[in-house]
Structure formats: C-alpha cells, structure tokens
Amino acid sequence: MGDLKWIKKFKMGDGFWGRYAKLVRDVVLPYQEDALNDRIEGAEKSHCIENFRMAAEKLRTGKCSGEFYGMVFQDSDVAKWLEGAAYSLAQKPDAALEKRCDEIIELIGAAQHEDGYLNTYFTVKEPDKRWTNLQEAHELYCEGHMIEAAVAYAECTGKTRLLDIMCAMADHTYRHFVEEGAEGYPGHPEIELALMRLYRCTGQEKYKELALHFINVRGVDSDYYDREKQRHDWSVWGNRSGSHDKEYAQNAAPVRMQTKAVGHAVRAVYLYTGMADAALETGDESLAQACKVLWENITQCRMYVTGSIGSAYEGESFTKDYHLPGDTAYAETCASVGLIFFCNKMLYLDRNGRYADVMERALYNGVLAGMQLDGRRFFYVNPLEALPGISGEAQTHRHALPVRPKWFACACCPPNVARLLSSLSEYAWHRDGGTLYSNLFVDGTLDVSEEFGGTVALETAYPYEGRLTYRFTPKGESMDVRFAIRVPAWSGGVEIRVNGAPAQQEVESKDGYAYLHGTFLAPTEVTVEFAMPVRKLYTNSKVAANTGKAALERGPLIYCAEGADNGGDVLSLSLKRGGTVTVSDYLPEKLCGIRELYAQGYRSETGGALYSYEEPVRREDTITFVPYYTWANRGLNQMRVWIPEQ
Amino acid sequence: MGDLKWIKKFKMGDGFWGRYAKLVRDVVLPYQEDALNDRIEGAEKSHCIENFRMAAEKLRTGKCSGEFYGMVFQDSDVAKWLEGAAYSLAQKPDAALEKRCDEIIELIGAAQHEDGYLNTYFTVKEPDKRWTNLQEAHELYCEGHMIEAAVAYAECTGKTRLLDIMCAMADHTYRHFVEEGAEGYPGHPEIELALMRLYRCTGQEKYKELALHFINVRGVDSDYYDREKQRHDWSVWGNRSGSHDKEYAQNAAPVRMQTKAVGHAVRAVYLYTGMADAALETGDESLAQACKVLWENITQCRMYVTGSIGSAYEGESFTKDYHLPGDTAYAETCASVGLIFFCNKMLYLDRNGRYADVMERALYNGVLAGMQLDGRRFFYVNPLEALPGISGEAQTHRHALPVRPKWFACACCPPNVARLLSSLSEYAWHRDGGTLYSNLFVDGTLDVSEEFGGTVALETAYPYEGRLTYRFTPKGESMDVRFAIRVPAWSGGVEIRVNGAPAQQEVESKDGYAYLHGTFLAPTEVTVEFAMPVRKLYTNSKVAANTGKAALERGPLIYCAEGADNGGDVLSLSLKRGGTVTVSDYLPEKLCGIRELYAQGYRSETGGALYSYEEPVRREDTITFVPYYTWANRGLNQMRVWIPEQ
Hints:
The structure is a homodimer. By secondary structure, the first copy, chain A, is of the alpha+beta class. Chain A contains 17 helices and 23 strands. In chain A, strand 15 and strand 16 form a beta hairpin. The longest helix of chain A has 21 residues. At the A-B interface, helix 12, strand 14 and strand 20 of A face helix 12, strand 14 and strand 20 of B.
C-alpha cells in the first residue's frame, strides 16, 4: 500500500524544477510558516496556528482566551503547509523544520475532541453547530486537507501521529454519515480525493467507502442544501438567501449524469479528481465514463490555452462552453493545480498522453504564472491579457490584478503551489505493472531498485530544449523495464537512441507514448530528441475573444508579449500571417533564464482619436515574446497572449 | 420664454422617423399606459397609478387601503409616460388620450401635500423620512421627471394644472434646500436639467437658482451621503453598508473639477446635461469648460461606436478610459438617450457639428436598437456582440440578453425612448438669433413663420440616401434666414444647390455646418447631396477589444453582421483588408426597410478542437451586414459589430 509512489525515491536535479523546489523550500514554505504564525509585518493576519491553540485551550480548560479569526476554512492553510513541508522533508531532511511540524501536529492533536472531531472554527466559535451547514462551512474540506497532510507526513517522515489524528476524524465522519445515516455531502469537495489517499495509505476499506458515499449521494438529492438551510438557518457569510445555486455546487444531477464542468472551478476539479481516483480503485465504469466526459468538456470547451480554468470571477467559476475571455479570466492558480490532480488520475485510469499534455500545459503556464519568480508574491487570478489602467481597476477587472500582491486573507493558492511543486515526482513518473512512464520531464534521479532493479536519471536543459537524456543504472545484474516516454502533442517528431544508436525499430508508439522495452545490463543512456518548433496556436472560432488571433508556443511553454519588451505597447501589435518566428539563445540573466521568441509582425498606428475612418498605418515590426509564466515580474505593463494575426 | 421650441411647430413626415413617431403613438404609449395601470397579463406589475391613488386616499382619509409597490422611483414612470403623451398630443391631438392624461394629473394633484410635497413612496410608506436619504431614495429624481412632464404638458396642451402642482413642489424643494439651508444633493441627478426647463417655461429665476444650487454643492461636500447615513440610518435597498462610492455618485470632486465621466452612466449624463444647460443660461464659463472636458472624455475614451455608454453592468456605469468590451457592455438605452440630451445642450453652448454627430450616432444606433422594430419589446442593454449560449446566460453576461424581453420591473428605458422619439424636433432644429440650424435630418415641415416668415420642409429617403431636400415657403413677402446645415463627419463631401443651381460660392463652411444666407421671395428648394460612402471604422489601439478589427458604417448607421444572414455563424468571419463593400438596393420588405452591405471577407474553418496548430483554412466569402438598430429582430442569433480584418 501507500499513496505516494516516488516522493522518497526521487531526488530532484538542479535544473528548471530544481530551482523551483529550492524556492519552495527556502522561500515559500518559510514565508508561509511565518504567515501562519502571524509573524509578517504589514500582511493580513492569518491566525491559523492561534486558532488551533485556542481550540486546544478550550478543550483543556473549557474556556477560550480569544476569538476565532479568519476564514471558516482557515485550518486548511495549516494543512496545506504541513503537506508541503512533508514533501520538502522527504527531499531534503531538516531536523528543525521537522521538529516544528511535530509541534504543530501535537497542537492539532490537542485541538481534537475525544470523539475524533477536529475543526477549530466549530470548536472555538460554533460548538453546537457541527455538520449543520455543509454547504458553506467547509468542515469536510478542512478535514480533507488535513487528511492529505497526514498521509503526506506519514509517508514522508514515517511518523504517524497526524495520521492517527485524522483516522480518528475520518472514523468520526464515517460514523456520522454512513453508520448514523446523516444526510448531505461536502459544499466544497476535497475530502473525496483525500479519503482515497487515506485509503491507499492505510489500506482501510472504510475510507474508500466514505469517499464513494460522498460521490454517490451528491446531486442524487440536489435539494439537500436548501433543506439543511431550512432546518438550521445560519450562515457563515451572512447571506444565505434564496435557493442555493446547483451549478455552483455541482449538485444539479448525480455525478454520473453530469456532462458539463460547472460552478466553482476548484471545487469541480477536486470533485472530479476524487471521482477518477474512486473509479480507478473500484473499476466503476460509469464513474470513469463520467470523468472522461467532464474532462473532455473542460479541455475542449472551457480551458484557457495556459491550462487555466474558470472564466468568471463571479463564483470563481466555469461559465459556458467557449466563453474564454482573456482579460477578465478568473483562471485561479488553485484550479490549475486541481486540474493537474484530475489529469494525473485520468492518466492512470485511461493511459493516454493527452492527459499528461494538459497536465504539463497547466503546470508550466497556469500554475507557474501564479508565483513570482522570486517565490515571494502570488497571483490567484491568471488573466491572458493585462491592461494597466483597466486590469485591477475597472469594476469588471478588480480581481484581475496586473501585478502580484502580497499575502492574501484567503491564502489558498500559495500553499497549493508549494505542495504541488514539492511533489512533482508523483506526476512526472508513473508505474503501471511492468511499465515505467515518464510523463513530465523533471530533472532528477528516480530510484526504481525495488520495482526494476536500478535507477533512472533524467537530464534536460531549460525546460527541455527538445533533448532528454535518461540514464539507466542497474543496481544488480540488470534492469528489466518497459519504458514509456510521453511524446507531447506539441512535438514535431521524436527520435530515440539507446547508447547512441537509433532505436526506432524497437519503439512502439501508442496513445501519446513511445514504448521501449529494454533489458539493461550495464548503465545505458536513452536519449530522446523532440523536434521543438515554435508553434502558432489558433482557437476554435466559437471562442469570440480569440477570433482572428494567434498565440505562440514552444515546447510546453505558452508565450506572451509584454510591454517591457515591446516599447510599452502590445495592443498595437499584430502577427504576420505566415510570418516567421525565431528563437533566441538561452538568456541566463533574463527572468531567471529563458529563451525569447521574435515574431514577424506589424505595429499599427491608429492616431489619437477613439474612432477613425483611416486604415491604421501599419509598419513591419518584430514582436518579442517571453514565456507566459514569467509575466508581471518587471512591474506594471501590458501583457497579451492572443495577438491579432493579419 | 418657453422650453420647447418646435414641438407644436413641427409636423413630422411619413419617412423613417415618421414610422417611429407612429409606433410610439400607436403601440409604445398605449402599451405603457396599460402597464402603468397593471392591465398587461403576464407582465410584472407596475402599480404606478395605484401608488398615486393610495397616496391621495391617505391624504384624504388619513388611511391607506394598500401598500406601496415597485421601485422607490416608481412615480417617474408615470412622469415619463405623461411627457411622451404630451409630445404625442402636440403632434396629433387625441381628445380621449388628453382626457386620460388630465385624470392622471388630477390624481397626482390629489396626492400632493398641502406644503407642495409630492412623492407616493414617502407619502404611503415612509411619511416621516422625507429628504433623509437623498443618496438612494430618488425623491429629487422623481420630482425632476414630473417637472419635465409638467413643462411638456403645459407647453403641448396649454393646460397648466400639472405645472402648478410641480411649481408648488419645486417651491417646497427651494424652501427646504435654499431658504432653510438643508444639506445635500440628488443621489440620481435629473432635477438639475428639469429645473432648467421649468425656469425656461415659467421664467422664474428661483428654479434656475435651485438647479445651480444642486450643481454647485455637489462634490464640494463629498462626504454628505455618509453623514446622511450616520444621521438617518435607513436603506431603500437593504444594504447601505460602508462608505458610499464617490465615483458611482459623481461626487468625488466639485463638478467643475471633474475631468472623467465616471459612475452610473445615466446619472452622469443627466448631471452633465443640467450643467451644460445651466452654463448656457448663466454664461458660467468654468461650468461650460467642465462640460467640454467631460464630453471629450466620454466621446474620445468611453463611448461605443454606437453612441452607447457604460461599459459595465456593475453599477450600470462607466469604467475606465478605453475599456469598451462588446459582449459585456452595459450600454443602457437610457444612457444613450441622456447622451443625446447632453449633446443637444452642448450644441447650443458651443456651436459645432461634432456634438450633433454624436447625437446622431447615439440616436440611430444606441437608442433605436433599444426597441424592437414593432415597438413591443425593449433592450436596456445594447451589446455590440451577441453570443447565444453565453449572452444572457454566463454569469458575466446575465444582463446582456441576446433577444429583447417583455416589460421590465424597472421600466426606465421604454418611456425614455418614447419621449425622445416623440420630441425629435427639439434636437433636429435649433435657432440661434437669425440662424436656423438643421442638425438631424428628420422629414417634416417646420413652421418658422414667427421667426423667419415661412416654413421649411425637409424630405429625405431611408435614412438619407445622401440627399436632403429643403423647401422654403414664405408666408408673406419673403423669408430672410441664415440657414445652417450640419455636414456630418461621415459625409465624404457635400454639394448644395438652390433651385437646382450650385450654391457653393455662397456657402460658408464652419465647425461642421454649411451656412447659407438666403432671402427667399418665392418657394425655394435647397438640395443637399452628401457623398455617402460605406466607411470602414477603426478603433484606437488602446481599446483591447477591437484591436485588429473593423466595423462598417454608412451615413449615420453602424452596421452589424448577424447569424441570420451569414449561415448562422459570424464568429468565423473576417473582413478582407482593402476589400470592397457594396450597398444593396433598398429592401422595403426586410426589417421594415433597409439597405444591406456586402463586404469582401473570409470564412475560416478552425476544425473541431478547442486549440489547434493548424492555420485555419480561409475561404473568400461575402459578409452580409444589416443596420445595427435592426439586430435581434429575427430570433436568437449571433451578432457582431467589430469584425477581425485580415
């Protein structure tokens, strides 16, 4: 058993992702730890740890010396940080950090009721209202995140204290919803995927059963939240008026009958991740089919080219098919993280490189753009077009900031990025029976001695430069491995060599993977060369925002034009139809190391009037593009992914 | 004195605007009258008249048999309808209609307090709260509209009963705010422009003084609403929380220091209209200058090409310079009506054809599109792009309906259109000293016997076809008139003939007008030929939504492409750079009579995938355009004004 496959077996290299792993370890996690402890001057108070302290005090003494502070789901910030810290510890032991984690875990334990119940909001503020407002109160959401932390901490450090705490809470939840038959299901899905992890970590069937329970009852009883409100009329937000929005809540129909990705985008993909994982572990075909339909709907009708999802600030949600506005996108960083979770499970469920293509797209673009290059500031919202003077200012653009702000009152995205980036091995590598899959090309060394009798090391350059080098090193006599390398949709061809010799004849191509069966007696080098042309991307003409426009992509990276490289003005630029695009040398000093693109295009001068009868004067110009993930690292300036093509 | 210059002197012809005048008379006003009286099945109740009945009952008996119903500004619906009815009576007497109007006016009088105060919301529902919530409660707004109705009814019918009622209310208001020195100014500006009309109608200086008072105190004390709230904490909408939004309320600075058109667009242009009118009547240069700056800001940074204003549903408001999204525009019909009011006053203040150009743009496009061709349904919101499946459905597009709905609970726009279209003469013709101005080309006969000793008749074809024929007919010996014809910015040249002979040498061109001095001894025909090419319009590249796009215009009409004429799909269409556009014959059967445009362009096929590396297959195609004001008269279909040009 065990949920995490590689976390302790993968040693990340110093490449592109190594820099990020180090940032997470050295900057992001320490900053967040300070935030959780309210040690950051000028930032909004978190009060997370303090909430646990008060809950523990109340359980110990019956009294509480302060008041709960923060979001109703404030506990989850501690959980996500602990999960990220656990991954970090697995990669780089740090006794002091581990000690602090252990202390927090003891504090969490002290805030747990005798019956297993754990939630500081309810313990401190609403002790009589447990389980009476599933729609809003995020109890199951916080539980889910803490379960994930518990699984991670147990598997990364071998210490089971938090796991025991969360098993007790999960047992309590099982009693309430399954044994005692309480109605309802999570307002914010998350616990489904967490319970599947807990099941794999502990081997206990009841956790899988509880996950399935929440999945199965959802939307079968689509009026539950309204009934719940009638029975216990209280609100976390102060305005629980009217009937609840069934699209927002993903409960308009039983999950197996849902065909469109709707509502709050993070909730949606967390739910689908749990569904896919449950389908994987149970072989439930109807559930798997629903996941495929929803995944298709997202990726073919509702996803930005950056792998971001959620077209509207209102409800932080999906909207309608083909509605993908660039400047007002919500495109929450957490939603891209959740889409990666979903794709990762789909990849196990239905082995096809397209799931990894989307996972990679979301990772290199929608997720990475969420974090400043120095790891110190974050975007929640990742628009595809930034318009200083409008973005962050117009009523319709208040959410779409043109530069990353400091810490948020609702601190969901930064720790979500941290836990993802510090556990990339779980997404990069899969094993399925006798096959080892290389999905994402993350530098480092994977120890598969147990599975295949040796190690595989992967070396790349910034992000790939089209060339991957895998080194297989048997521990004993030989390594016998069916090795599958994902061939990304963006690649214009692939050439594989084994110790320098072409291996095309031994390679089987299937569903986006190149399969190579090898028995390596001695260290063996497998090199993979992808053709890596700059691609112009076009959008289905049903997407009104992108008609007549193109975007540039190279390898996994979507590019954008920023004012900083283009005389301050990207709105007057257009790409030349059929024009060439060239790639710069690697620029180690620029934006932590990038390659720029230079595209043939035009700059139009439209004069000073708002409207004119004069055709704009158009001059040939070269447009400079930088990787989308690096945008907004040079102060306030215009940014555009989709550029008119003329 | 007198406010209305031409209403009784202009007899509208049967042309383009004659059809609309007839629609207003035969369909719009009767429908609205039924609505005000709650006689329309299936429509939201208005209760307007009933509110007056209850207020009158309460004043008579001290008791009330029902409850106030509707918006806090429900009274204004009666006022706007009465104003429209007055204009209609001036053009076509109708004894039965006039009798019904008189009855309503008697009812209004019966709802007036002894001290002159009149407002059914306060009389029926909040008798103790008069003047305590200027921010929200629309008392001065309702008063303003009823003053406008009173002026119109007096000048159109000669009956002064309503005028007396409203003078008493205005006197009451003057006492309260000027003599007794009560603080504050209107939450929804409107009374300023109305008081200027009342001043001109009655000649009483105090009404001008009161208008100036409200204009002058606005924003000088920009915290008034917050103080008002502290003193009398009650809310019409139930959520008067936090400080008020000073941009929304146009009170962040004294009006003379305001340089950007901000906040609720209708409120803004009503305010500016009152300011311009006050500047006109007082010669206040600083006020005139502020109006010019605000007008420039609107028309050069914040106006749609259709003459619509208000880029956001949130606050029904202006947003930021160059933010002009097409599909999510608010572009309220009433705001275009208000912009016409503003332009009309600016034209008196600063004689320049550009104000009439914008007035015409708003009239033929932003306003007319607000009404279905049969006069039975209305848009509040006039987007420049409609996307069935998204428009009216996505969270961000709920306001932007793709087809016109029936009557609204908030019924502001339909009567606003009715009163404008039934008083077009006031905008079409101006007289300034010895000069008669023809601003808008509305078929009909103007009696200027008093001013110039004869009549002028104007004949055009749909809308103009580039040819105007003015017939001057002296009543006595001769007509001596300096005649100024606006030369629209869209015209490619103008040729003027007097009785068939070229008159170019006698014509003086200045600031968008062609001035012709004539002494006509016998009936004289002045013909004007405008070159009327189809124009491609381009937007300043600062407007992100329109980069790389063009729109088509011919004469005063903006055109759009609708799915109905283009195989159901306009999103895959692009205009050909440098391509030709041809004009159809006049099509009398289509959309109540139009000319279509046929533009060379392309249709792109982008395949089924959301994103593709394939350059879209592009085939030459002819794009059919219809006038924007006719859109959404053929059921649900795509519509687009701005089309990519390639």
